[in-house]
C-alpha cells in the first residue's frame, strides 16, 4: 500500500498537457484560463470623476466659481478651463484638463451659474488614468474564471479567452446488484448511486462527464464498458476494485492494456483504489462502497481533473479544534465524516459516531472530512486537527 500523498503525486502525473480552446467571455465562467489574457485597455482610460459634483481648481476652491459647461459620463466637456470656472460633472465622466479636483454636489451651493463650496474636506475625488490597470497588463493563467474575472476581462476589452478544453470523463459503474434510480430493483439489487456522485463531482471540477451503461460482473460486460469509454480523456470505474471473486476491474483493465501505477492506498475509506493509464488515457478505479467512492473522488479524481485543465491539483487543509476525544489511529490515513460548529478561534469538528463506508445518509450530512494521519496517537478535546471542507 502506498501513502495518500504518494498516490496523489502519481495520479497528478497521469494528467496529459491540457488542450487549449478559445471561448467568448459569455461562455467562460468556471473555465480554466490557459494563457495570459492581455489587456487592450487602460482603466480608467482618462482621469475620471469619482463623484457627482463640480470639477474645480484646488487653488480656487475658496471663492465663487462660474459653471461653464458639463462633463457627463460618455460626453466629455469640450470647452477650455479658464480661471474662476467650474464644470458640472457626473461620476465616471472625464475630468476636463486644467481641473484638479471634484467637489461633490452635497458640499456646494449653487446660485444660477455660480457655485460656492460649503465643505472642502476630503480628497480630490479623481481616479487617475490607469488607476485600475494598464494596457498590456495581464490576468495570469491557471485559474478558474469567476464572475469578477469575467468582469475584469470584459473591462480589459478581451472578448475571447484561451481556456483548457473540458476533459471528457467516462464513468463506468459495475456490479450485478446495480440498477438505475426509478426502476424496480430485483431481489438482491440496490440502486446505483456512485456514478451520479462522481459525475457531479467531475462536472463541478470543470469536466464533461458521461455516465456509461451499468456493467455486469463479467469480463465481456466490463470490456464493453472500457471500449465505450475509448474516446474519453479520463476513465473512472466504480466497484469491483477489491479482492472478491467478482471484483474484476484490475484483471480486465490489465487485459485492456492498463499500466497500473498503484492498486491499494493506505487510506480509510478507499483502500482498494487503483490508478494507471491505458495507452495515454488516465484511469482511476474507485472502490464500490459509496462513501469510499466519493472520498476517493474528492481526493484523487477532482485534483486530476484540475491538473488536466492546468490548474493546481494540490488542496490546502483547513484547521479545526476537536469536539471530542479520539483514540489512536491504525495504519491507514483516516478521512472521518464530521460536522462543523462555530468555535472561539477555530471551528469545532465532531466526527459522526458511525464511520461505515456504506452510509450515504451520514456522508450527505457531513460538512467536512476530518483527516487523521496513519498511526496518529490518541487526541483530546480542543486539539487542533486538519479537515477538508465538503462541497454542498
Ligand atoms: N476480503 C476483503 N473484502 C473487502 C476488502 C478487503 O480488503 N478484503 N475491502 C473492503 C473495502 S475497504 C471496500 S471499499 C470494498 C470495495 O470493494 P469493490 O471496489 O470491489 O466494490 P464492490 O464489491 O463492487 O462493491 C462494494 C459495495 O459497494 C456497493 N456499490 C458498488 N457500486 C455501487 C454503485 N455504483 N452505487 C451504489 N453502491 C455501489 C456494492 O453493492 C457493495 O455493497 O470492498 C470491501 N471488501
Ligand atoms: O476502503 Mo473501504 O473504502 O474502507 O470501505
Automatic annotation (TrEMBL):
Domain of life from the UniProt record: Bacteria
Swiss-Prot/TrEMBL catalytic activity: adenylyl-molybdopterin + molybdate = Mo-molybdopterin + AMP + H(+)
Gene3D superfamilies listed in its UniProt record: MoaB/Mog-like domain (3.40.980.10), MoeA, C-terminal, domain IV (2.40.340.10), Molybdopterin biosynthesis moea protein, domain 2 (3.90.105.10), Molybdopterin biosynthesis moea protein, domain 3 (2.170.190.11)
The keyword Nucleotidyltransferase is annotated on this UniProt entry: no
Entry's Gene Ontology cellular component terms: cytosol
Cofactor: Mg(2+)
CDD domains cross-referenced by the UniProt entry: MoeA (cd00887)
GO molecular function, one term: molybdopterin molybdotransferase activity
Listed pathway(s): Cofactor biosynthesis; molybdopterin biosynthesis
GO biological process, one term: Mo-molybdopterin cofactor biosynthetic process
EC nos: 2.10.1.1
Keywords: Magnesium, Metal-binding, Molybdenum, Molybdenum cofactor biosynthesis, Transferase
Residue ranges of domain MoaB/Mog in the record: 170-307
Keyword Flavoprotein: no
PANTHER family per the UniProt record, alphabetical: GEPHYRIN, MOLYBDOPTERIN BIOSYNTHESIS PROTEIN
Family statement: Belongs to the MoeA family.
Summary of the function given for this chain in its UniProt record: Catalyzes the insertion of molybdate into adenylated molybdopterin with the concomitant release of AMP.
Protein name per Swiss-Prot or TrEMBL: Molybdopterin molybdenumtransferase
